[in-house]
Write a structure and sequence with these properties.
Number of strands: 8
Low-confidence stretches: none
Number of helices: 11
Oligomer: single chain
Largest sheet: 8 strands, parallel, barrel
Strand content: 15-25%
CATH class: Alpha Beta
Number of domains: 1
Radius of gyration: 20 Å
Helix content: 40-55%
CATH architecture: Alpha-Beta Barrel
Mean pLDDT: 97
Length: about 220
């Protein structure tokens, strides 16, 4: 499974890149607004840190014509930029045209198998299935992920299933079991994935035993 980091914070992205874990980055208007820096500047800086797909989202969600203009702008910023497009009839028009032009796309806010199917048929590079938001309303977000993975394999679509709206390490466990191609992970959740009480106690025990042994590296 590929790890994308879901962040527009440059410090977080640098830290994950230093770990050797980041295969790409996803951003959205909310994450970018939180950082309070220029859109183009932030995306280009991320592209200088991470050698992989970097999603930059268009915002004129009700107009295919406006979204297409925005898509051409953001895709010109760096070869690794992937145009993030909200799902819907207008958005799928945009995805179809961008795919024909050889521009990669990430269709976002997908919640069902039928939505993922439409996006795959339109030619989306990535299918962003949101799981946390479905769980928040007492649904099972991972069901659509499993179904979408099966659908992509069954019909041999080129799209990759990307698990988004990740809330906890357990979502990553479930994404692996579902066979998802990618998970986009908030920095906080990635930090949690490192943690286990037995790992902590094990390291402490080994360290104490080493100190008591009198051994060294000579």
């Amino acid at each position: 499974m590929k790890f994308f980091i879901d962040s527009a914070n440059l410090d977080e992205i640098r830290k994950v890149a230093e770990m050797g874990l980041v295969d790409g980055v996803t951003t959205n208007p909310t994450l970018l607004a939180k950082e309070g820096k220029g859109f183009k500047t932030t995306i280009q800086e991320i592209c200088s840190i991470v050698d992989g797909p970097v999603s930059a989202e268009v915002v004129s969600a009700t107009s295919a014509e406006e979204m297409l203009k925005e898509a051409h702008i953001v895709s010109s910023w760096h070869p690794n930029v992937v145009v993030k497009v909200p799902f819907g009839p207008e958005g799928m028009k945009v995805v179809k045209k961008l795919t024909a032009e050889g521009i990669k796309t990430n269709v976002t806010v997908l919640f069902t198998l039928t939505q993922a199917l439409i996006a795959a048929k339109a030619g989306a590079t990535f299918l962003s299935n949101f799981v946390g938001r479905v769980d928040d309303i007492s649904g099972e977000g991972m069901v659509a992920v499993r179904d979408s993975v099966n659908m992509v394999h069954e019909y041999e679509f080129k799209s990759e299933v990307l698990v988004a709206s990740v809330r906890s390490p357990q979502h990553i466990v479930e994404a692996v079991r579902a066979g998802a191609h990618i998970a986009t992970i908030p920095f906080k959740v990635l930090e949690q994935m490192y943690q286990h009480p037995l790992t902590t106690s094990g390291i402490e025990r080994f360290t104490e035993d080493w100190k008591k042994s009198g051994l060294n590296f000579d």
